[in-house]
Specification:
Blueprint (H helix, E strand, L loop, with lengths): L13 H7 L9 H17 L5 H13 L15 H12 L1 H4 L8 H37 L4 E6 L2 E7 H21 L1 H4 L1 E2 L15 H8 L3 E2 L3 H6 L2 H29 L3 E2 L18 H6 L2 H16 L9 H28 L2 E2 L1 H6 L6 H10 L5 H16 L4 H10 L4 H10 L2 H7 L8 H37 L3
Parallel strand pairs: 3-4
Antiparallel strand pairs: 1-2, 5-6
Helix pairs in contact: 2-3, 2-6, 2-9, 2-21, 6-7, 6-14, 6-21, 7-11, 7-21, 11-13, 11-14, 13-14, 16-17, 16-19, 17-18, 18-19
C-alpha cells in the first residue's frame, strides 16, 4: 500500500487489511468512481497541471477500466479508489501519480455515493412506475369485479378487485414522488472540496459539478466530505416504498392462500417433499423487503451518529447498508410487475363476500330516507346480520326485518343490499370502490405514472450523457 509507506513503517497484515477494506461492496460505486476521477483529471488539465495528450490517454484508460480485470480482492489496496489509482499509475503514470492532487478520497467517495444514489432514484422511479402501471392495467380489467374488503382480517364490506389494486398503485406512486423530491438535495457536488477544510489546488468546483451532472457545488467543504444526512432521507423514503411493496406482497400471499386469486406457475414453487403444493414463493420473498429497508436505515443511522469532526472510517462502514435495500427494492418491483400482470381472480372471491357485509349501507339508507336515526338502524342491521351469520335464508331475514318494524319500501331495499354487486354500485363518495370511481382513479394514476416515468427516463439519459461527456463513447 504505497500511500501508507510514508508515515508508517510496518506493512499491514492481510487479515487486518481485509477488516478495514470496503472492496467487497465498492462494486456498487465503481462506475461513479471512474467518472469522478475523469472529472478530476479534466479539471487538472484545465488548470494547466496536465497536458491534453496525457488527459486523453488517462481518459482512454479509465474508459477501459473494468472491475473484473482489476485487483478488487487485493485488500491491501483498501478500497476502489486506490485500486483505480494503482491501475492508472501503471497505465498512464503522469496521470495516476497526480490523481490525488487536490482530491481526497473523502470528497471523491461522497461524490460517487451521491451519483450512485441519483442513478438509484431514477431507476427506482422508473421500475416503480412500471409496477404501478401493471397494477392500474389490471385494475381497469377488474373495475367491476366484486371482491371482499377486509378490516381486522375479516370480510368487512363489498368492494372490487380494481379498487384494491388502485390502493396499492396509489401508495407506490406517492412513495416514488417522495424519492423524486429528494433528488435536488442529493445532487449537490462535494468534489473539489478536499479532505476536510478545502484545498489549495484551485479547482473550479462549479465546473466540476457541471461535468458530473450535479446541480451545483455543496457550499461547505466539511459538509461536502463528511456529511451523510442526505442518505438518511433517502433510506427513509426507501422504507416508505418498501412498506407499500411488502403490504402488496403480503396481500397476494393471503389472497392466494384464501384461493381468492391465482398467480402464474412461474411465480410459484412446489415443496421439496409435497408435490401437491403450489407455494407463492415470489410474493413471500417480496414481503421481506420492508424489513431489509428498515435494517439498512437503522444500521446506517446508528453507525453515523457517533462522529467527531470530519471523515472517519465509520462512514465507509455505514455505506454498505445503503446498497442491499436499494437493490432489493428494485428486484422486488421488477419481479412483481410480471406476477401482477398474470394474476387472475377466482370465482371464490365473489362467494367470499358474504351478503351481510353490505348491511352497513342498508342502515345508512334507512337514516338517509329519514326512516329512523342511524344508531337505531345500526341495531336493526346487527340483528339481521346475526341471522345471516347463522345461515338463515333471505326470506327469513326479510320476515325478521318486518317483525322489527321495517316498512315494505325498506324491505325491498334490503334485498338489494344483501347482494354485494348492488352494494358496490351504491357507493357515492369520491375515491370509493364504485366501478366508475375506480376507472377515474385509474386515469389519474396513469397520468402520474407517465409523469414519473418521463422524469426517470430523462434523468437516466442525463446520467448516460455525463458518462459520454467525460469518457467518450465506448
Amino acid at each position: 500500500m504505497s500511500f501508507r509507506s510514508g508515515r508508517l513503517e510496518r506493512e499491514m497484515p492481510e487479515e487486518v487489511a481485509k477488516f478495514i477494506s470496503s472492496l467487497d461492496v465498492d462494486l456498487q460505486i465503481f462506475d461513479e468512481v471512474v467518472l469522478v476521477n475523469a472529472a478530476h483529471l479534466t479539471s487538472l488539465e484545465r488548470m494547466g497541471l496536465m497536458d491534453s495528450e496525457t488527459l486523453d490517454r488517462a481518459i482512454k484508460a479509465l474508459r477501459s477500466a473494468h472491475p473484473s480485470a482489476l485487483p478488487m480482492t487485493d485488500y491491501k489496496l483498501e478500497d476502489v479508489h486506490m485500486v483505480i489509482e494503482e491501475y492508472l499509475k501503471s497505465a498512464v503514470p503522469e496521470a495516476g501519480e497526480n490523481l490525488a492532487l487536490g482530491k481526497s478520497r473523502n470528497d471523491a467517495v461522497a461524490a460517487a455515493i451521491r451519483l450512485r444514489l441519483m442513478r438509484y432514484i431514477a431507476e427506482l422511479v422508473s421500475e416503480g412506475s412500471c409496477l404501478a402501471e401493471a397494477l392500474i392495467s389490471k385494475a381497469r380489467d377488474h373495475a367491476e369485479t366484486v371482491f371482499p374488503l377486509f378490516t381486522h382480517e375479516q370480510v368487512a364490506a363489498p368492494g372490487t378487485f380494481g379498487f384494491v389494486l388502485t390502493y396499492h398503485a396509489s401508495r407506490i406512486l406517492k412513495s416514488l414522488r417522495i424519492l423524486k423530491s429528494l433528488y435536488d438535495d442529493i445532487a449537490e457536488s462535494p468534489l473539489g472540496a478536499g479532505p476536510v477544510g478545502g484545498t489549495s489546488v484551485p479547482h473550479d468546483r462549479s465546473a466540476l459539478s457541471e461535468l458530473l451532472g450535479f446541480k451545483g457545488p455543496l457550499l461547505n467543504a466539511l459538509e461536502a466530505s463528511s456529511s451523510r444526512d442526505f442518505i438518511i432521507t433517502y433510506l427513509g423514503a426507501l422504507c416508505r416504498l418498501s412498506v407499500a411493496l411488502a403490504d402488496l406482497a403480503e396481500e397476494i400471499v393471503r389472497y392466494v392462500s384464501m384461493q381468492l386469486i391465482e398467480i402464474g406457475d412461474e411465480y410459484c414453487s412446489t415443496s421439496s417433499i409435497m408435490p401437491h403444493k403450489r407455494n407463492p414463493v415470489v410474493a413471500e420473498v417480496a414481503r421481506t423487503i420492508a424489513a431489509k429497508a428498515l435494517a439498512g436505515m437503522t444500521s446506517f443511522t446508528a453507525i453515523i451518529t457517533r462522529r467527531f469532526g470530519g471523515y472517519v472510517l465509520d462512514l465507509q462502514e455505514s455505506t454498505r447498508h445503503i446498497w442491499h435495500p436499494s437493490t432489493a427494492a428494485l428486484d422486488s418491483m421488477r419481479v412483481m410487475k410480471g406476477m401482477i400482470a398474470g394474476m387472475r381472480v377466482t370465482d371464490a372471491a365473489v362467494r367470499a363476500v358474504h351478503p351481510m357485509s353490505g348491511i352497513t349501507e342498508f342502515a345508512a339508507l334507512l337514516a338517509l330516507n329519514r326512516k329512523m336515526t342511524f344508531r337505531r338502524a345500526h341495531g336493526i342491521a346487527a340483528r339481521l346480520s346475526r341471522l345471516l351469520a347463522s345461515g338463515a335464508g333471505i326470506s327469513e331475514v326479510i320476515a325478521e326485518g318486518r317483525a322489527l318494524g321495517l316498512d315494505d319500501e325498506s324491505l325491498s331495499a334490503l334485498s338489494d343490499f344483501l347482494k354485494p354487486e348492488k352494494v358496490v354500485w351504491s357507493y357515492k363518495v369520491k375515491g370509493s370502490s364504485h366501478p366508475d370511481e375506480v376507472r377515474e382513479a385509474c386515469d389519474l394514476l396513469m397520468r402520474e405514472v407517465e409523469s414519473l416515468r418521463s422524469w426517470a427516463e430523462a434523468e437516466l439519459e442525463a446520467r448516460e450523457k455525463v458518462r459520454t461527456r467525460l469518457l467518450g463513447k465506448a
